[in-house]
Amino acid sequence: MKRPVLFSIFFILIAIGCNAQEATISEYDLYGCWVLEKETSPSTNIAIYHRCGDIAPEDVKFGSKITLLAFNESEHESTSDQACFSTFTEKGTWEFDENTRVASLYSGHKWLKEFKQLYPEEYASWGSPEKFDKLKFRVIGMENKQLTVEIIPKQYHKSPREDSLE
């Protein structure tokens, strides 16, 4: 009698353990404010984002703050070399693919919309971009209010104007 009960408990524990390893991360899990902690020697493209309130302001890496909001809106810190490298909050958009776990942050959509209206020919010569890539990362894991990500380097392509000169 004891053996069937022990085997049943054993198999239930194995099933629970297998499901725990495949924990999904949804867009809703990423909502909120995230920052990087100052690092002494970042050697890889793996980064650990912390919730904004969990890191003392003096320990936050300069310009690393991102806020992921509902309705695919985002905010991120940017710096201006014209104002003594001061920081300001720039609005943008973001997307998250739950299958690949890739999050993409974009900026400049409002500026590009205005530029398109004012200078349509110049805008078209750029290849008609709708937004600029700001940051792209793959979510590796999330636990203890920390988000471990792999930063995906930006891919730079030739503009349509360069292709037409060849």
Radius of gyration over C-alpha positions, nearest whole angstrom: 22 Å
Tally the structural domains: 1
Low-confidence stretches: 17-21, 158-166
Percent strand = 25-35%
Structural class: alpha+beta
Largest β-sheet summary: 8 strands, antiparallel, barrel
Q: Which percent range fits the helix content?
A: 25-40%
Give the termini separation.
82 Å
Helix count equals 5
What is the number of strand segments?
8
| Cross-sheet strand order for the largest sheet | 1-2-8-7-6-5-4-3
What's the overall average pLDDT, rounded? Answer: 75
User: What is the string of SSEs from the N terminus onward?
Assistant: HHEEEEEEHHEEH
Principal-axis shape = globular
Keywords: Signal
Protein name: Lipocalin-like domain-containing protein
Signal peptide: 1-20
Structural write-up:
Helices cover 28% and strands 35% of the residues. The protein has 166 residues and is of the alpha+beta class. The protein has one domain (26-165). The protein has an 8-stranded antiparallel β-barrel.
Please write out the topology.
Blueprint: H1 2-21, H2 27-30, E1 32-36, E2 46-51, E3 66-68, E4 73-80, E5 86-97, E6 102-107, H3 109-118, H4 120-125, E7 132-143, E8 146-151, H5 160-165
Antiparallel strand pairs: 1-2, 1-3, 2-8, 3-4, 4-5, 5-6, 6-7, 7-8
